[in-house]
UniProtKB/TrEMBL annotation:
InterPro entries: TPR-like_helical_dom_sf, TPR_domain_protein, TPR_rpt. SUPFAM superfamilies: TPR-like (SSF48452). This is Tetratricopeptide repeat protein 1. Transmembrane segments: none annotated. TPR repeats lie at residues 174-207. PANTHER family: TETRATRICOPEPTIDE REPEAT PROTEIN 1 (PTHR46014:SF1). Interacts with the GAP domain of NF1. Interacts (via TPR repeats) with HSP90AA1 and HSPA8. Gene3D superfamilies: Tetratricopeptide repeat domain. Residues 1-40 have a biased composition (Basic and acidic residues). GO terms for cellular component: cytosol. It holds the Pfam family TPR_8. Residues 1-72 are annotated as: Disordered.
Amino acid sequence: MADKANSDDEFHDALTGETTCEKEATKSQLNEKEIDEIVEKQSTLQLDDDEEEGAAAATVASGGDGDQEVKQPDGEISLEELRELEKHLSVEELAANKEKAAKLKLEGNELFKNDNAQRAIEIYTEGLNVCPSDSSKERAVLYGNRAAAKIKLESNKSAIDDCTKAIELWPEYVRVLLRRAKLYEQDDKPDEALEDYKKVYEIDPGQPEAREAQVRLPPIINERNEKLKTEMMANLKDLGNMILKPFGLSTQNFQMNQDPNTGSYSFNFNQNPS
């Protein structure tokens, strides 16, 4: 299990060590743990349902003869477009693009460290636009780091989307699973958060946050569900009274009893309720 727990860091070390240029650059670059420390400082931020997505706003690039290429949020080209472009590239060119994406990741990390999250998002996006479509882990890291930058800008909903993309590419990406779980909690989605924490625990039972969340969140979810049930029953009662009123009846004329063995309900009519 310890090997899985450390897979993120080992992978990043391998990625950033591919070229001599990158080895020299990493001496002053931000590593993933430092990114997490900065993101952790944003943990008290509240989500704003009306937030402007900022970095996640869709952009449109004009092409020749008035044609327009519609890009995804953040200016990211779609995976289908990337694959189409790759059909015209040689093996050497694809390798060069992979190396360029690695350098862009390092540049984005440096911008992130220097509190230029907006520019970091743009650089991570540039990396995604050249990183080969079959380089799943490299693309997952770019999405995960871009999510971290978006958290700094309080674009948490867009950050959740990036975390999801990263996890789809790398299901055992523990660091980003934890990142998304915390975002879900801030967005008042404890069920989704608990699912992510459970996945983390399956991958690495030694993760303290995952263990703690599996004890802390179930009571919160149960309390929320009970509150919703009470509200639903009150609304049903109001609706029932509105329907029964023309007949001189109300919900008080009906007694609801739950069978302790099956959990099902039965109704008894009472002409003269007390």
